[in-house]
Design goal:
Elements (H helix, E strand, L loop, with lengths): L2 E3 L6 E3 L1 E4 H4 L6 H13 L4 E3 L5 H14 L7 E7 L10 H15 L4 E7 L12 H20 L3 E7 L3 H13 L7 E3 L6 H5 L4 E5 L10 H16 L3 H10 L4 E6 L4 H8 L18
Parallel strand pairs: 3-4, 3-10, 4-5, 5-6, 6-7, 7-8, 8-9, 9-10
Antiparallel strand pairs: 1-2
Helix pairs in contact: 3-4, 5-6, 8-9
Length: about 280
């Protein structure tokens, strides 16, 4: 396993993490999920992400972590608080604190290492908003996340699904008011490079899926990877993971597997890194 700093913070994470949603499938038992988690930990995975996980998944993960007895300092847990359904709609201080405390109870943890805050997929929450109101909303978010860290509920915070301009302004608000600034982003691929170059935000992301079949932009990308995958002697999935790790600003790529064998196959993507240049193209032999 390889490890990177989460953005420019001092927190080191495994470059390949495990997403809770990807191992607790509808037909996956807690015993099967435990085998995957144990295998991941044994193979050096230290980052376990619960973003978007249901209450059932959080409870199961909490029971497994407690039963394993691993040192809390040996793994990193990330969580996400996002837009809820009415009347909880919005990233208010109330919603953030209550949402995170609920996750901690279900996970049976005193704190998470990183909490991400952001909307569900869709239009940015500040898009088209009055500029003054927009800055007030961003200030409330930054103050709430600073309080979360001051109270020891989380050690770091990051943005999730937020428009780059909103992230830039939230960072500026934190610096102007001497509050805690975000250190990372939970981002789709490819992450916004200026957030890394200008702010030092590392990206926690996931590999682009590579299903084949009907014609879609995603499948067209997967098919384009086939010749290079054949050249490198790997699967399109492994190549997609390795290429994701080569993107600027990426700190960790989340995997999802329902068996230790499936996880091992994805982890073999690390063997491809020395053979790929910047941007994920094959290096000359």
């Amino acid at each position: 396993m390889k490890y990177r700093s989460l953005g420019r913070s001092g927190l080191r994470v495994s470059v390949l993490g495990l997403g809770a949603r990807g191992i607790f499938g509808a037909g996956t038992s807690e015993e099967e999920a435990e085998r995957v988690l144990s295998a991941a930990y044994d193979w050096g995975v230290t980052l376990f992400d619960t973003s978007g996980a249901s209450a059932r998944v959080e409870k199961s993960l909490g029971r497994i972590l407690r039963s394993k007895g691993w040192r809390r300092s040996s793994y990193v847990i990330t969580a996400r608080v996002h837009w809820g359904a009415p009347p909880d709609r919005g990233l208010s201080r109330k919603f953030l604190l209550e949402g995170l405390r609920g996750s901690l109870r279900r996970l049976q943890l005193d704190y998470v290492d990183v909490v991400f805050a952001g909307p569900r997929p869709g239009p940015a929450p500040c898009h088209g908003m009055d500029p003054t109101l927009r800055l007030l909303r961003l200030e409330e978010l930054v103050r709430a996340m600073s309080d979360v860290i001051d109270q020891g509920l989380a050690l770091y915070w990051g943005t999730a699904g937020t428009a780059p301009n909103d992230v830039m302004d939230a960072f500026a608000v934190a610096r102007q008011l001497n509050l805690v600034a975000p250190v990372c982003q939970w981002a789709e691929l490819p992450p916004e490079p200026r957030l890394f170059r200008q702010l030092g935000l590392g990206a926690v992301t996931w590999a682009t899926p590579t299903p084949l079949g009907e014609e879609t932009p995603e499948n067209a990308t997967a098919q384009a990877l086939q010749p290079l995958a054949r050249q490198l002697g790997c699967s399109e999935t492994q190549l997609g993971i390795a290429r994701s790790l080569r993107l600027e600003g990426v700190s960790s790529v989340l995997l999802g597997a329902e068996t230790p064998r499936g996880l091992r196959e994805q982890l073999r993507a690390l063997q491809l890194l020395p053979r790929l240049g910047p941007g994920g193209v094959a290096s000359p032999p």
